[in-house]
Write a structure and sequence with these properties.
Blueprint (H helix, E strand, L loop, with lengths): L3 E6 L5 E6 L10 E2 L4 H6 L2 E6 L5 E6 L5 H11 L11 E7 L4 E8 H13 L6 E4 L10 E7 L2 E7 L2 E6 L3 H11 L4 E6 L14 E3 L5 H8 L19 H50 L5 H4 L3 H12 L8 H13 L5 E8 L2 E8 L2 H12 L4 E11 L2 E10 L3
Parallel strand pairs: 1-4, 4-8, 9-12, 12-13
Antiparallel strand pairs: 1-2, 2-3, 5-7, 6-7, 9-10, 10-11, 14-15, 15-17, 16-17
Helix pairs in contact: 6-8
Length: 399
């Protein structure tokens, strides 16, 4: 079974790496620099540990019914603990228990910088996580890792801090104020003869070597991955790529079949429409045998409409039926007004309406005015118990 490759990227952009079997055994000592191409190609999984000081670990409570709701809610749940703008941060999260969620927050620009640095060394990571998650922790003790003049202190599963080893005394004093009974076990990789605050540890292991090997041995199955969301890494294995390609080909075939089916439907509808048009033309000719050449060349439905208008006496643009026919669609689709009466005199139609307010009455006037050939104006607006009683005067163009 392929082993996994574990890399550590420090704040200066320098790499160290080692190989580890899937059961946790170290297959090599830690090496400085980027791993050779042969090692990268043979690795079943590439895990990169990044500086803990750039990643904030938080445990919070979020009520969410789905993963999508969780992703939307978490940034606002921890916003007051962030130093930068929430829209500039990237959030990786892991449900813990019930509504508890473990969250790792990193600046988007910083994460992209790490990805670019790794790509420059030929490394494409499967998992990126803060090195603090590889420091051991238990329910009754915390762990301090002293390495490179800095202290990485993991206080809990989702709580870790990083600071200069010169400030160790001050930090231990602050921790004792809030957690006086917390046992802290230290592992020193700097080999200093006199470590500040040494007496404040429940146990001190000096003379440690290979900090990456220490982190690798204590790295459990990654509970979180910063390569999530827009930073999600594509799978490096060809087998997965082949399956995705096959799925894409099947999807493309389905789309093509859908287009063909839709084309056949459109063709059938066009044929049906042609038959309906022919039937309409025959029916029109039987009904009005006196059709002229100009009318025969027009659409049957248009000619039928004009003939019916003429039979109703609505050919005069200022006639009562003409005006009523033009405003009828507006009145028919209105549910907030009631028609109270109609009055037609000298080519002018006045409509009495009960509207909920003046704005609705004016909206009706605008809809009437929008009809080609009509002009409308509000002539009365009287407050009533249930709204406004108004009258709208409508004029039609002269014939």
């Amino acid at each position: 079974m392929p082993d996994r490759l574990i890399l550590r990227l420090d704040s200066a952009g320098e790499l160290a790496w080692l190989r580890q079997s899937v059961d946790g055994r170290l297959l090599s000592s830690s090496q400085r620099g980027a791993p050779p191409a042969s090692v990268l190609e043979s690795a079943g999984e590439v895990i990169v540990l990044v500086p803990a000081e750039d990643v904030l670990l938080i445990e919070t409570r979020v009520n969410a019914r789905s993963a999508a709701q969780l992703r939307q809610a978490v940034p606002f749940a921890v916003e007051d603990q962030l130093l930068g703008a929430v829209e500039e941060q990237h959030f990786a999260m892991q449900p813990i228990d019930g509504d508890k969620v473990g969250v790792a927050v990193v600046a988007q620009a910083r994460l992209q910088q790490w990805i670019d640095t790794l790509a420059g060394s030929g490394v494409r990571a499967d998992v990126i996580l803060p090195e603090s998650l590889a420091v051991p922790v238990s329910a009754d003790s915390a762990t301090a890792m002293i390495d490179g003049g800095r202290v990485l202190l993991r206080l809990g599963p989702w709580s870790a801090i990083s600071f200069s080893s010169a400030d160790l005394d001050d930090w231990l004093a602050q921790i004792r104020v809030t957690a006086s009974d917390l046992a802290i076990v230290a592992h020193d990789f700097d080999g200093q003869a006199d470590v500040p605050g040494k007496s404040g540890f429940a146990a001190f292991h000096g003379g440690q070597r290979e900090p990456l090997a220490f982190l690798a041995r204590n790295l459990q199955k990654p509970a979180i991955n910063l390569l999530s969301g827009v930073f999600a890494s594509g799978h490096r294995q060809a087998r997965g790529t082949r399956w995705w390609r096959r799925a894409a080909m099947v999807a493309a075939a389905v789309v093509v079949l859908a287009f063909v089916h839709r084309g056949l439907e459109v063709r059938q509808l066009a044929q049906n429409l042609a038959r309906v048009d022919t039937a309409m033309a025959d029916s029109l000719l039987r009904t009005f045998p006196d059709l002229g050449a100009a009318e025969r060349s027009r659409a049957p439905q248009s000619v039928m409409r004009d003939r019916l208008e003429r039979l109703r006496g609505g050919s005069e643009s200022s006639g009562f039926l003409r005006l009523l026919g033009q405003i009828a669609p507006v009145l028919g689709r209105t549910t907030r007004t009631q028609m109270r009466g109609l009055e037609f005199r000298n080519g002018i139609l006045e409509v009495g309406l009960r509207a909920p307010d003046v704005a609705t009455l004016d909206s009706m006037r605008e809809q009437f005015s929008a009809i080609p050939g009509l002009a409308a104006e509000v002539t009365a607006s009287i407050p009533a118990d249930s709204g406004v009683d108004g009258r709208i005067r409508i004029r039609g163009d002269a014939p």
